[in-house]
Write a structure and sequence with these properties.
The structure is a homodimer.
Chain A: H1 19-43, H2 46-52, H3 57-63, H4 67-87, H5 95-112, H6 114-125, H7 132-155, H8 164-180, H9 182-189, H10 198-211
Helix pairs in contact in A: 1-2, 1-4, 1-6, 4-5, 5-8, 5-10, 6-8
The structure holds a DNA duplex (18 and 18 nucleotides).
DNA sequence: GTCTATAATACGATAGAC
DNA sequence: GTCTATCGTATTATAGAC
């Protein structure tokens, strides 16, 4: 299985491309994102990707030599986007500010790139066959680094004692949920298919959860 | 697309089954759960299900008339399991107790039925083609009912002002994350493939998050 | 109930004309 | 660069023997 890392781009392979090449590759990747994010790698078909891209199947395979190469291209692009919000967490800010703005960045990323989020989710559910190496190396390293920042705040009493890595899991899951399970969110809230107005409420909810206090101390009347 | 509800079982159709029938159906459903939960409906193949069940493909199709019928059987079984923890929330308990035990039930469900959780997640990512009706009717109704309980607590000042339905989303996402993204959790924590020891830490994290206070009030030195 | 054989279609990928 | 035609395999499902 071809494994991908966030910085596996080889500039030497990149020959100068014509305008039409760039346009077609973009069309294909956009269509493939649509199909892969909905059905996963195995569930996606070149027929559907080609149809979505309004392109013949052989023409599509003129730009990417096979199905896996398209998938790899999408995942590679994704990984940088994925790590960006986490990288920005700084040890120098206030815990509430840093965590708050991280949550807002992740929610914004979820709102702006729901298909990318579902592509990632599909890869996870399948057991991460393509990005297992990335998770074990680059992601783990970045998480360890940021977890150390959180641990510092805990030691200083500026953050409640908790496992920092699980705090990150909680932030990831709650924010990505709005992209990955958007169908359920919309159905439960009674919204129309395209409606993503729930993101306003999501910000509010997650700020209360992570920065405020959900259950007040029992009153001692 | 065949739609499913949580109570769509028709007892009249259920003829008495021999022991071997029950055993084989169970074997098939167990194998199918394994395959569907990993690759989704479209990504799953009867070949893999049959191989996993150690059964020939035609024999498998002797028990279920096609691929979709197996999938429907799994989802139908799933939905009751899925709603059970939510149904138990009572308006008469303390908010902290009710929410706390709901989180523990959901985490336990995630730990005990990770493949069922991933089956559900795959269905969500695909746009809920089979259980859209369930989400809009039964789930929405139950959520509205339980959200009203939360709202009552909010009105009484026993719960912070928030959208109760988004509070449920937060509980669902954080708890299911440990099943759906278990590969990532294990890789980031540096655990072995089968290791699910992180559930101990998860309980602790989520209790701090939902019942405690993550970021203490700024000290006014 | 289980099997082998196979029909019928879906799918990934290539050949070769233009 | 794009197309039609097509090959080989995978996949769903059925027929019919045992």
């Amino acid at each position: 299985m071809t494994q991908i890392s966030a910085s596996s781009e080889n500039p030497a392979e990149r020959r100068s491309k014509t305008r039409i090449q760039k346009e077609n590759e973009t069309r294909i990747l956009l269509a493939a994102l649509e199909v892969f994010s909905e059905n996963g790698f195995r569930g996606a078909t070149l027929d559907r990707i080609a149809a979505t891209a309004k392109m013949s199947k052989p023409n599509l395979l003129y730009y990417f030599k096979n199905k896996e190469e398209i998938h790899v291209a999408l995942l590679t692009d994704l990984l940088d986007v994925w790590l960006a919000p986490l990288r920005e967490i700084s040890p120098h800010g206030e815990p509430a500010d840093e965590i708050g703005s991280y949550i807002r960045r992740k929610l914004e990323s979820s709102r702006q790139f729901p298909r990318e989020s579902r592509l990632f989710a599909n890869e996870m559910l399948a057991g991460a066959p393509h990005i297992g190496d990335f998770l074990q190396s680059e992601l783990k390293q970045l998480v360890d680094e940021k977890a150390a920042i959180f641990q510092g705040w805990i030691d200083e009493g500026r953050l409640a004692p908790c496992d920092p890595r699980h705090l990150l899991f909680a932030i990831w899951s709650t924010t990505q949920h709005y992209a990955d399970f958007s169908v359920q969110v919309r159905h439960v809230l009674g919204l129309q298919p395209g409606d993503v107005s729930y993101y306003e409420e999501a910000v509010s909810m997650l700020e209360t959860l992570f920065l405020g206090r959900l259950v007040p101390p029992a009153s001692t009347d």
